[in-house]
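User: Quick sanity check before I run a bigger batch. Here is a single chain. Can you write out its predicted 3D structure?
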Amino acid sequence: MDFDRRLALTALARILGKQRHLEDAMAEAEAALGADIEPRDRAFAHNLVATTLRRLGQIDALIDALLDRPMPAKALGARNILRLGGAQLMFLGTPAHAVVDTAVNLAAGAGQGPYKKLINAVLRRAASEGAKIIAGQDAGRLNTPDWLWQSWSQAYGNETAANIAEAHLQVPDTDLTVKSDAVGWAEKLGGTVLPGGSVRLTGSVRAAALAGYSEGAWWVQDAAASLPARLFGDVAGLRIADLCAAPGGKTAQLAHAGAHVTAIDRSHKRLARLAENLTRLGLEADLVCADAFDWRPDAPLDAVLLDAPCSATGTIRRHPDIQRTRVPEEVSHAAAVQAKLAAHAAELLAPGGVLVFATCSLDRQEGPEVTANLLASDDRLRRAPISATEIGGLAEAITADGDLRSLPCHLGALGGMDGFYAARLIRE
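Assistant: Done. Predicted structure follows.
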């Protein structure tokens, strides 16, 4: 009974307590329960956990406002039950009686029996008083950890930081990269063509059930993630390496455009998934399981795409667990790794070759500072500024240096986009 709430509670505890990714935590929680979960219950639990993570700052502030005294540290399980209850009451529109009843039952079955009366009382107060409290909150600021807010404010200013935080509160739509006829596929699927050519479908969709999936007419890829591969221009016949390639959206773009692509990734599992995607799409690439640091081609390359490992803070709108599991130290570590990878990538190029260095982080350390340091240390490289026409006219996503910098608040009227950085460098 209440498998969906039990699944959500178990997953939430793993995310907040063990810094697990949302998808991993859901899979682990389902295995731990040892029960067959109906697809509908699984979908509800996933949405409940994602909403709780997306709105955690607001929910915690609400709980604290309704408590007569602070909860003891040992009552973390009870607080997580209250968090799930708060998400349902305030943001998912679940009937109050259902929320209270299932929360009390959940407490009894999760070893939180001593807190049943507290949970009952707090959630009943939330049902009657919560809407007014929520309406008076600064949602964007409350839901953003301090270190991230400070980083964005320093990089983009307070107003843009607030816009980024607000964008993270919205449930993201589904973007498709189509092989051809974006207008036609948008009409067929009930979507919208975005600047840059992606097709956007409202909300989260089951891709495999849509027209064109089995025929390999398109693949799921955020509009921002589709931009870096376009910065090479005409790639027909060129030899290109896609370092850190999985899950393969950029590999697919380059292969479809006629490039001879070598896709490198160090994960066998992720590379197998990339191979499956290419097979469905009817595209070909040479797949190599190797660490990008160690791989070298037989001959210098025409181009290299490096979508470097990073803190992934640009994808919080799609992965709300990121702002609950990342710490500032990870940014510095990722930037150091990126610097080494970018220097290695530059060495793989033939004279005149193009390096596109990209990262889905919003932090300046991961991206702009790596590019600046690489240019300062290697006088064979020069920046090739990007123009707005190359990315669908998105002038707001071009920096003063001529690099790409998309933000979650860009395309705001159309539903936003992930935060991405990319620089294009030429080896002289």
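Residues 204 and 221 are 13 Å apart (CA to CA).

User: Great, the batch can go ahead then.
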